[in-house]
């Protein structure tokens, strides 16, 4: 009997368990999946929780519910991977030998990276919304906050779902409008990037929205420290931005298990072949989702496209066939823009987000890079699709794993 | 993409003014690009530029964090040498692409 071991039962690991369970014979392969948590969080919901749009029960379900019968779920912390000897050491001391390993341990926030961020003001006037606890604490704060300077801040790239902080700023604008207190809130968006986004066309569209909503932008801001006492953030050039309420996205890092295993880069992301998803160092280790170092968005949609391609590659690897160099960095993200609207972006390693129609070229019904209500319905429907299709590895009709060029207005 | 003359030589640049062919770069062009950014290059500037170019040749993606840990320059000094947006400014002078800080 051979063993396939999956580390992490989040978005990516759960999808791989469902795909592979379907393809592998139970007589030949044992599949185990490990996670230290018992709950699975729908992380895109962390954006809505602070504004009382979702309730906690909308975005938390037991991990076990999504693991197919026949796959063995182990609920324990992983201490380290020992790739040279093909085993995983568990915190309790067990050694799990593997023939093939899939690393899907995701990314976490590391607020300790910035001096002054953690301290008395953390969860008092400084919040994150990238964790369940952070989003919930922020919800409670926003329910009673009386206004002042709101600063929405990105520490450094890469981060999960790179548009989420912008969406937060847009949703904050409509939240305060609905509470009839927008005139008492000053919103500033602070980013280490040179603009609202990394790609020119999407940046132009998003900066136009920021202006329309009277959200100021401070770009090229590389934070050095938080001065919690004087409530300001300070960058290396000495620039300061004052806040009454700081909503920050701290540095995102791969899990410490990657560091303990000596398998990561300086942010604990695992060097991975960007087209095959095989580890660059170990042929029988594959990596997907937020844990990789590839230059694709760290998003659930990306993990979904990766999982379809990686499943095929793992089956090929088992058969001794060459791997397909198929992953193109495809990402597909709804961007909430507030007031019941959203826009949609679809892009890959080489093609930036542009205007057009999706998924049917020339038809839609979704419009790319343009605000619409139907896009917002799409974003809300994504939660249902996530729990009922994505995690189970069901193919989403009409949406291919690689990006489609038809229906897009490239110059 | 367009061609412009820098320090007497034709050079390919993109719409943001970053050179698109590193092989066309030389120190005179670097000095001229620095002047356009209101900078006079000291030996420290050159050390940092050489470091960035080596990383570029080795296909190592650049970030402020990596530069801070490089041992060549700390982030504070990097900002003093190339004020405001140091990575962008230094990359432009070094003739290498604008660092793509992932998506
Ligand atoms: C605020 C926010 C908004 C987002 N919005 C969107 C969106 O609109 N659309 C979209 O597509 N994506 C969105 N994302 C991103 C998406 O949630 C992630 O990209 C996706 O969940 C990544 O899946 P993953 O499996 O790689 O990591 P995760 O789902 O984070 O799973 C990693 C798992 O590994 C486990 N683990 C890690 N280390 C250990 C260890 N040492 N021992 C045991 N277990 C361990 C963890 O407990 C966890 O369950 C958003 C993310 C955030 C934070």
Question: What would your notes on this structure say?
Answer:
The complex is a heterodimer of chains A (411) and B (103). Chain A has 411 residues and is α/β, with parallel strands linked by helices. Chain A contains 8 helices and 24 strands. Chain A has 3 domains: 2-108 and 253-318, FAD/NAD(P)-binding domain; 110-251, 3-Layer(bba) Sandwich (FAD/NAD(P)-binding domain), CATH 3.50.50; 331-390, no CATH class. In chain A, the strands form 8 sheets. Chain A has a 5-stranded parallel β-sheet, with helices on one face. In chain A, strands 11-18-12-13-14 form a 5-stranded parallel β-sheet. In chain A, strands 6-7-8 form a 3-stranded antiparallel β-sheet. The model of chain A has no long low-confidence stretch (mean pLDDT 96). Chain B has 103 residues and is mainly α. Helices cover 45% and strands 10% of the residues of chain B. Chain B has helices spanning 27-36, 43-57, 64-68, 75-81, 86-94, and strands spanning 2-6, 9-13. Chain B has one domain. Chain B starts with a strand and ends in a 9-residue tail after the last helix. In chain B, α1 (27-36) packs antiparallel against α5 (86-94) and α2 (43-57) packs across α5 (86-94). The chains are: A alpha/beta (411), B mainly alpha (103). The structure holds flavin-adenine dinucleotide (FAD).
């Amino acid at each position: 009997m051979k063993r396939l071991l999956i580390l992490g039962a989040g978005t990516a690991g759960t999808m791989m368990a469902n795909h592979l369970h379907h393809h592998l014979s139970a007589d030949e392969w044992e599949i185990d999946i490990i996670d230290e948590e018992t709950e699975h969080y729908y992380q895109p919901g962390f954006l809505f929780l602070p504004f009382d749009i979702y309730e906690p029960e909308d975005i938390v379900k037991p991990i076990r519910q999504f693991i197919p019968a026949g796959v063995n779920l182990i609920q324990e912390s992983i201490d380290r991977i020992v790739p040279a000897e093909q085993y995983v050491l568990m915190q309790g001391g067990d050694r799990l030998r593997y023939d093939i390993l899939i690393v899907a341990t995701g990314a976490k926030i590391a607020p300790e990276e910035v001096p002054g961020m953690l301290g008395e003001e953390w969860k008092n006037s400084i919040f994150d919304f990238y964790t369940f606890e952070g989003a919930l604490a922020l919800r409670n704060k926003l329910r009673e906050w009386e206004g002042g300077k709101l600063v929405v801040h990105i520490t450094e790239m890469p981060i999960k779902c790179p548009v989420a902080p912008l969406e937060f700023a847009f949703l904050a604008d409509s939240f305060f409008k609905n509470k009839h207190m927008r005139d008492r809130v000053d919103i500033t968006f602070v980013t280490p990037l040179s603009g609202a986004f990394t790609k020119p066309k999407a940046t132009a569209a998003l900066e136009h929205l920021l202006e329309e909503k009277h959200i100021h932008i401070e770009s090229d801001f590389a934070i050095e420290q938080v001065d919690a006492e004087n409530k300001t953030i300070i960058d290396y050039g000495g620039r300061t931005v004052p806040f009454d309420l700081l909503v920050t996205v701290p540095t995102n890092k791969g899990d410490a298990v990657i560091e303990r295993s000596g398998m990561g880069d300086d942010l604990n992301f695992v060097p991975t072949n960007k087209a095959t998803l095989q580890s660059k160092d170990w042929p029988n280790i594959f990596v997907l989702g937020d844990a990789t170092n590839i230059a694709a968005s760290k998003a659930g949609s990306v993990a979904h496209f990766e999982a379809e391609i990686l499943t095929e590659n793992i089956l090929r690897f088992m058969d001794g066939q060459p791997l397909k160099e198929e992953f193109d960095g495809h990402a597909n993200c709804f961007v909430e823009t507030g007031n019941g609207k959203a826009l949609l972006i679809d892009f890959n390693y080489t093609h930036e987000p542009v205007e057009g129609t999706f998924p049917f070229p020339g038809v839609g019904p979704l419009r790319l890079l343009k605000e619409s209500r139907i896009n917002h319905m799409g974003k809300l429907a994504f939660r249902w699709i996530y729990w009922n299709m994505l995690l189970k590895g069901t193919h989403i009709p009409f949406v291919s794993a690689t990006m489609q060029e038809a229906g897009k207005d490239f110059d | 993409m367009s061609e412009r003359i820098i320090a007497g030589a034709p050079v390919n640049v993109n719409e943001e003014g970053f050179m698109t062919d590193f092989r066309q770069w030389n120190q005179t062009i670097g000095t001229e690009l620095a002047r356009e950014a209101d900078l006079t290059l000291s030996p420290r500037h050159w050390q940092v530029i050489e470091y960035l170019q080596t990383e570029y040749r080795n296909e190592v993606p650049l970030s402020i964090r990596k530069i801070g840990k490089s041992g060549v320059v700390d982030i504070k000094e990097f900002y003093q040498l190339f004020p405001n947006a140091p990575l962008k400014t230094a990359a432009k002078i070094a003739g290498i692409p604008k660092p793509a800080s992932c998506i």
